[in-house]
Design a protein that fits this description.
The protein has six helices and six strands, in the order αβββαβαββααα. The protein is of the alpha+beta class and about 200 residues long.
Length: about 200
């Protein structure tokens, strides 16, 4: 009975270990270090230039194949421009400066069936531990948010001094003046008729 229980425990343990080592089919994002919301003043987005430290290992063996920390040289790139693998393009969005993540990247979002010879074999699932060091806002930030409102206001002010606006305003003023003159002339004619009528009645 004890032997049967022991075998069952061993089988369960082995199954659990195998399940843990089974490569995920989709991108997995884990937060290793979270930045408080009040300290996260800007988040990464497509078009931004990111500066990062990273360490990459193979999921199956845990062997390290690259690390910017070993070179003490942060990796700088623009996200959303196809400069990095798909797992990075997706896994590094909406990230705060100082935040650390663990990305488990399946082959179709990494180097695919061909790999990256000689350090990454074909069909490899990759694990990256990354830290975001800095964000330089890209063009997408210049077209959104409060800056857009300011730009629109500037354009509105410029339109008031444009030649088309000045000409249309001048035309309206001239038309108003003519209408005013015609109305005034009509009043004079009517007043003259009233005086002449009054004189005739007195006679």
């Amino acid at each position: 009975m004890r032997i049967t229980a022991g075998l069952a425990f061993i089988v369960t343990a082995v199954t659990s270990v195998m399940a843990l080592k089974e490569a995920p089919a989709d991108l997995q994002i884990g937060i290793l270090k979270r930045v408080p919301a009040e300290k996260c003043l800007v988040r990464s987005n497509n078009g931004d230039q990111l500066s990062m430290h990273y360490t990459g290992t193979l999921f199956d063996t845990g062997v390290k194949f690259d690390s910017s920390l070993d070179r003490n040289d942060p990796f700088v790139f623009e996200i959303g421009k196809g400069q990095v693998i798909g797992g990075w393009e997706q896994g590094l969005l909406n990230m705060c400066i100082g935040e650390k993540r663990k990305l488990t990247i399946p082959p179709h979002l990494g180097y695919g069936d061909r790999g990256s010879y000689p350090v990454i074999p074909g069909g490899a699932t990759l694990v990256f531990e990354v830290e975001l060091l800095d964000i330089k806002k890209g063009q997408r930030n210049e077209r959104k948010g409060p800056e857009t409102v300011k730009t629109n206001d500037d354009e509105a002010i410029i339109s008031f001094s444009s030649p088309s606006f000045i000409l249309s305003t001048a035309g309206i003023l001239v038309l108003f003046f003519l209408v005013f003159r015609m109305a005034k002339k009509q009043d004079i004619v009517e007043a003259k008729k009233a005086v002449e009528k009054e004189i005739k009645e007195k006679k």
